[in-house]
Amino acid sequence: MKDRYNTVHNYGEDYFIEKKSKFIGYAKHIESEEEAVEFIDKIKEKHKDATHNVPAYVFGENSNIQRYSDDGEPSGTAGIPVLEVIKKADLRNAVVVVTRYFGGTKLGTGGLVRAYTKGAKIALDDALIVEKVLFKRIKARINYTLYGKVENELNRLGYVIDDVIYDDAVNIIILVEKNNMKNLKEILMNLSSGNVNIIELNEEFFSLKDGKIIR
Question: Disulfide: which of 8, 105, 154, 214 matches 159 by Cβ 3.0-4.6 Å?
Answer without folding.
Answer: 154
